Amino acid sequence: MFGQNLEVQLSSARTEDTTVVWKSFHDSITLIVLSSEEGTSELRLERLLQMVFGAMVLLVGLEELTNIRNVERLKKELRASYRLIDSFLGDSELIGDLTQCVDCVVPPEGSLLQEALAGFTEAVGTAFGCLVVSGRVVAATESWWRLGTPEAVLLPWLVGSLPPQAARDYPVYLPHGSPTVPHRLLTLTLLPGLELCLLCGPRPPLSQLDPQLLDRWWQPVLDLLRACVPLGPRTLPAGFPLHVDILGLLLLHLELKRCLFTVEPSGDQEPSPEQRRRLLRSFYTLVTATHFPPEPGAPEEKVEDAVQRTQVPRACYLVSGPEEPGTGWRLVALQLGPRRLLLLLSPQSPTHGLRGLATHTLHALTPLL
């Protein structure tokens, strides 16, 4: 606040063991985050604040946050967002909070699920529908994919963060598309862990989604739905060929704003899944902040950066751990067109072959995203 009075912008600060980042939204709400985690980047904390504010708008609405008439009432209303915000602060299996891309899985026979979803949403009178497993999108209608950021990330994340329930009728605001007028998020559990989500207005009523209508569209693809349930942490179809050295991967489509994220390959090897996720998240913040061009939708790059465009790297790698030959996890990033691939590899993977392995893997994954 002292800096603002002097027309000085200050957005972060560091002490010996803590990073502090803050951001004001609409000249009304200021959010502050502190992290003592070693190696925490400002980029990660800035995006965390954006997600937290997006969650507040999603469940309370922008009007309540910008025209605060009763602070105590606002505090009570914000309790509805606590579970969602807590999920950002924990060790989530998702990564959309950091990448600002929708976490997805690749289902078997995705076209058949897409047809069933399109038919069902048309039958109930809404254009916005998707299937969600463990907070990840299995299939979605074209209108759902056109949702803006951050609601495209927040809605499936919200569904994944809520306790299991057979059906829900949940009021939500869209932080980008409709921040002041609420919509209804209807969810129906088709199978344990797999939910059908609909975004709609006053109609249809939840009672209209009767078992006969559900059976008509989803009974014919029941086996495909069952095959989607275990896809949550695995993301990729069973049997998808990956090199034995790959311990985890993150594939982003920067134009579609979708991503595939898994640490399931070679699950019986070290490091643990939690550590793999931390390594890939840290590597993502490093390459995004220092190596690769700004992502679509990011603030405009400086003129001198644009002039040096031809010098921007398209690949980089990092060895994490001991410096002795043959030790340390390998991390490699490769960008081709709108796709960016990050791989976590075992210490046995030779550094001179990292780019070739990443290129081969990216070509294999390209038809999926």
What does this entry look like structurally?
- The chain is an alpha+beta fold and 369 residues long.
- It is 36% helix and 25% strand.
- A six-stranded mixed sheet has the order 4-11-10-14-13-12, with helices on both faces. Strands 6-5-9-8-7 form a five-stranded antiparallel sheet. A three-stranded antiparallel sheet has the order 1-2-3, with helices on one face.
- Strand 5 (128-133) and strand 6 form a beta hairpin.
- Helix 2 runs antiparallel to helix 5 (82-89) and helix 7 (110-124) runs antiparallel to helix 10 (211-218).
- The longest helix is centred in the first third of the chain and has 19 residues, at 42-60.
- It is globular.
- It starts with a helix and ends with a helix.
- Mean pLDDT is 89; it is low at 300-304.
In short:
The protein is 36% helix and 25% strand. By secondary structure, the chain is of the alpha+beta class.
Describe the largest sheet: 6 strands, mixed
The ordered H/E elements are: HEEEHHHHHEHEEHHEEEHHHEEHHEEEH
What class, by secondary structure content? alpha+beta
Output the strand order for the largest sheet. 4-11-10-14-13-12
Low-pLDDT residue spans: 300-304
Oligomer: single chain
- Summed over residues and divided by their number, the pLDDT gives a mean of 89
Keyword list:
about 375 residues, alpha+beta, 5-stranded antiparallel beta sheet, 15 helices, about 25% strand
